[in-house]
Task: structure prediction
Amino acid sequence: MIWELLRRCLIFVVSALAASLLIFWVLDSGCAPAQSALGVNGTPESVRALCTQMGLNRPFPVQYLDWLRGAARGDFGISYVSGVAIGPQVTDQLAVTFWLVLGGIVVALLIAGPLGMLSALRNGRPSGYLLSGLSQIGVAVPAFLAAILLVLVFAVRLDWLPANGYVVPAADPVQFLRHMVLPWLSLGFVQGAVLTRYVRSAVLDELGQDYLRTARAKGLTPFRALARHGLRNAAIPVLTVIGVQLVTILVGAVIIERIFTIPGIGKGLADAAERRDLLTVQGIVFTLVMIALLISFLVDVAYQLIDPRLRTAARR
Amino acid sequence: MTAPATATPLAVPAGTPFRPLGPLVYIGAGIVAFIALAAVVSFFWTPFDLLYLDYAHRSAGPGTAGHWLGTDRIGRDIATRLMVGARTTLYVGIVAVGIAAIAGTPIGIVAGMVRPGWSEVIMRANDVLLAFPALLLALILAAKYGGSVTTAMVAIGVASLPGFVRVIRSGTIQVMSTDYVLAARVAGRRAPGIAARHVLPNVSGLIIVQASSAYAIAILAEAGLSFLGLGAPASVPSWGRMLAEAQSLLTIAPLTALWPGLAIALAVLGFNLLGDGLRDRLDPQLLGR
Amino acid sequence: MPTSQTVEPILRVRGVTVSAGGTELVHGVDLDLMPGERVGIIGASGSGKTLTCMAVAGLLSGGLRAAGSIRLVGVATDLIGARESALAKIRGMRIGMVFQEPMTALNPTMRIGKQVAEVMRIHGTQDRRGAARATVELLNQTGLPDPERIARSYPHQLSGGQRQRVVLAIAMANGPDVLICDEPTTALDVTVQATVLALIDRRVREENAALLFISHDLAVVAEVCDRVLVMYGGHVVETGSVLQVLADPQHPHTRRLLADAELSLPGAR
Result:
């Protein structure tokens, strides 16, 4: 198992390096920082001179390694558009988005766990059809539509919750929660619908397993047999989906944060992209992709812990 | 060797569902056909001229002055814009899924035919790509080149690629383990010949199924991008942008948000139902279950 | 044995049918199982023998429905139409089961010992510590080498034959009155088949359980059973003592099974 973990770590490191190279290469801003520093007064000659002075036309590998050293410490340089240090800004934004993603996946799990199981157990009965029909519709609803509808009902019509804005949890926990409820539900409903379908099919797979019949032959009712023997096994495929969904929610935050004007990393990315602030985009994309790769690495590790077959397979 | 010598066909294993499908595929196909028809008809006829502004009836409800679904805040006919918006949605989807299918199929087939070591390398690279969802790629491209339909299509296409590679690879592995491929290899047929003659025809069903599912995701992504203003320009009607515009006057005219939202959800539902239905009909062997 | 005729049957099956949707797959099966008696049900694939047994255990899958009457001594209600919770109390306690496919019959993510102990914990026949001790003893009785180590293992670390022994250990843990075996040796290597068969034979005798043994192989049934039911197309077409049926088969289908068995006889032993 140690070797398998090391192998996974190696894959993670290589993937992270490949991704960072890709990000740096695609979002290379060239002489743009020099251009922007000189503004409209810059002649082509003076821009070229400053560009050289700033080290922006050193060989690509040198620049890349230089950038990577900084990026590894969370230092993405200073934005040539806004003049703000990118690293600390990203950290602040990430803290906001963290709450959004956490709440979103919790809502999704709270919806998908019980509903997915129920619709599998009720498979073939009217209530089962109803549940899988509802999840099918839920999958087709984009998060921003859910957000708009939720705002329409709970903020505009009923006026129960604020339509947008963000409050730091430490400052006022109640207001924080009130502001986060609608964003959480927007992300959670949609991802919950997606997850429900995976939970359902994983549980259905389990229900068809011989060892579940053995469990019932031992004297467990279908529900208890599933709870004791099925869920751990069903968790294996579902875990992958949760990993993918965390990434989806993280990136989907771009839209949700825009709708609810939440100052998270998604809004930061969309704003930077709109301003064509390549350096900031680079820093944020790097952060997001590293988190995405880290999540899939952790999912892989979790597999090893859940499934004993993988453990011994690796030991051999 | 351990396979049961007598599989009793009557003995259905506990819990195996009797799933009646059928109608859902046709509902999905119907929705898709309806949207495609609306898009095609919009080239020849729309309820109103696309550029016509009905100042007298702004933010009007459905049925007002011949506007089936009402008008938006500057008096444009919503039904007309939805029909023309369907063109954008379908066009972006076709190109994006086309990119993914055309690039993903050969990569998937190669990954399924080469030695496991190489296959592992391809799949790891594929996993790296998986860490770049469509929205992220679109934002990268928009930051670099400015947001446009082209960047949206490329971003969605590249983001859909890993899904194709995975599915086609597992289908290829299934095909490669069959007796007729073994026979072809014994007969001395080379790998490219086997890929063209045996693998491709057998995974073509998978391509169609995956394309249908990818299309649903592409519609969602396109809507999200144009919602952010990173897709079609303001002059071209698109469902996502209509929704974004409607968001600002949610208090006055909530229905203007409902129609494009409904259109997006319906289109995604249609392609999902179609994809799921086709998948259920497909040879289960190829799905690697 | 003349006395066995006067004793009440432990399991009494009357007119049991199994249907899927509107189609009847098993038609009116009658069966009496005396205490300690061994009855085989033979038939080709699709003859309905497995469905009949699943109906007895109440383990038919979702789309299938059983009708008729199944009574177990000491249980006040009919097993057909009984509540799931009532059936759960009987399964694993009064009725043990061994299935055809040992490779998939055990939970891959749970240690063997825990899976065996569970059946005693569910029915409260042992406390936690007692169950652990009894587990090792049960594994030992099924002839598994180094039972302590086996108890700590996961299913994938065991061979098919070993896993089937574990399933048998689970089935016999609470000393059931009836053991149902559904083609228990079919999926095993020929070399292992005979030993597992001998083990079932021994364990049933030790626990004085009645045996309901399903097989498509007449030779196997002849080895462990006293009496045999021949099923064909969802009907019981012939019934009698093993000797009687072997010596003088009445139904053409039985004769064909017999002919097939003769051919495979050297291989099965």
